[in-house]
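#struct-help
A.M.: can someone run this one for me? Single chain, 313 residues.
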Amino acid sequence: MPFQQDTATSYQDLLNQLRLFVTQHGWFEKRWVEKNVNGESELILRGQGISGQDQIFVGIKTYSDTGQDYFNWQLQGMVGFDDNYSFEEQPGVITQEPPSLALWDKPIPYWLIVNASRIILVAKISTVYVSMYLGFLKVYGTPGQYPYPLIVGGSLIHNPDQFSVQNLRWSNTSSEHRCFTDPGLNNNETGSTLYQRQPTGFWQPYANRKFDDQRIYYGDHYHHIWPTVNESATQIREGLNGERSLFPLVMYEHEVPHANTAKNVWGEFDGCYFISGFGVSAEDTITIGSDTYLVVPNIHRTGVNDYWALKLA
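D.P.: on it. Structure tokens below:
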């Protein structure tokens, strides 16, 4: 699996390094604008999928304010590309507060994993870790049943016009700043750090936590990530010989309030797994068989339920 670990000089350089790497591994550049008249950059990509026959459209656009000290990426998913339209006008984009990444204009260590169906990025900003997932879900079904399982996951909710500046900076500690593996809602519950394009074409936000960082119960919201939504995940420990267990991160939804059965279990993230936080730290590597995994925290959080593992090789 193509993997790159390096350090970018800034949030702009990070986007350019991502562009150069992914276009060598199954993705095609549809638009690249490097620092427009406003000093911002824009990238739109098309993935061909594992079969080589897919048309997977995703985009990244920078937005920043030097005086207010935020330097971020807006993340998007699309169903096509038209060079006559702006980034926000591309067909099928998320129209309500899409996910983003809170970065900075300083050196950024990063881990970048790509295949022809999805792109995963982990970036270290000071002492916090932000993450991104753009591309297809590993679906529990056939291409005929779910032909375009596009996922857009980030670590922040993009709405610079609505929220105060402190909520746009990498130091944000609210539920708006949560990894896509354990997503959170904003204060008016209109945006999330994770969206799924459902078979109907609707962009469905997912959330495990409310704005106050409290766990969402089944009656409050119906779209979650398992097992991070469950408090019982905190009881998972290493095996008797110290071996680690990894669990798929599954997107699912409930049918009625407080139901214990799922209406739809859509699939799981490709290359991302839940791991117990007992006895692990950020940037640890875990070897299971011939595979290596990077331990990643949920932004700044260090609880036993706040870590996930990224498959490197």
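A.M.: thanks! The chain is about 5% helix and 40% strand.
D.P.: also worth noting: The chain has one domain: 3-311.
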